[in-house]
Amino acid sequence: MMRNRSAVIAVILGLGLGAAAGLSAFFGWPMLRQSQALTPPAHPKFTEAKWPFPTDEWGEGKAFRCDAADCGVEVGVYIRAKIGFCNCLTGVSDDNELDRLSDFNLMGGKPSVLGAGHEIKIAWMKGRSRAYAVSEPFHAPSSVLAIAFNDRCDAIVATATVAHDAPKTLEPSVIDFLNSEVVVHWAEVTLGL
């Protein structure tokens, strides 16, 4: 009788540990996984994807992705115009304006700031970029780059999701992509220039 009881306890413990290990692997629990160093990609390749978000007052934008094979980790870039929503006098000149313009609502809420933002330039437009951490239970660490730039009172807002906890490494690649002919042409057409 005692031997059967020990066998049952051993089976239950084994199943419990196996389930815990399976859940850890499936959800990529941050406490069980540390991010590996990320190097800037030599030749990132962004391809257009379908806009994955529901339509809201700003309409649909453009979506692009860079696979892990091309960027080191998966990167999604989502851009759209917010016509007449930018501060006409100062543009996107500080982090408060960047936060106000950012599309955090598409991502399920505002993530945690990783540091102060800084000025950027996309074609003829000036703006700001800032990195944020995204913490979701049962998911691996990830981050977001919020980027906004303007032409007078009209803003272009870009959100880059990065499947890594250090987005600053990929920021130059994202900024280069936003300066690409594909995105600049889209911005000109969308802004009516």
Structure, described:
It is a single chain. The chain is an alpha+beta fold. The chain has 5 helices and 8 strands; from the N terminus they run αββαβαβββββαα. The protein has helices spanning 2-27, 68-71, 95-101, 171-178, 181-190; strands at residues 47-49, 62-66, 75-82, 112-113, 118-122, 125-134, 142-151, 154-162. Strands 1, 2, 3, 4, 5, 6, 7 and 8 form an 8-stranded antiparallel sheet that branches. β5 and β6 form a beta hairpin. The longest helix has 26 residues, at 2-27. The protein is globular and about 40 Å long. Mean pLDDT is 82; it is low at 13-34.
What's the layout of helices and strands?
Layout: H1 2-27, E1 47-49, E2 62-66, H2 68-71, E3 75-82, H3 95-101, E4 112-113, E5 118-122, E6 125-134, E7 142-151, E8 154-162, H4 171-178, H5 181-190
Antiparallel strand pairs: 1-2, 2-3, 3-8, 4-6, 5-6, 6-7, 7-8
Question: What string, H for helix and E for strand, traces the elements in order?
Answer: HEEHEHEEEEEHH
How much of the sequence lies in strands comes to 25-35%
- Portion in helices: 25-40%
Query: What is the 3D shape?
Result: globular
Q: Whole-Å distance between the termini?
A: 84 Å
Essential attributes:
193 residues, alpha+beta, eight-stranded antiparallel beta sheet, 28% helix, 27% strand
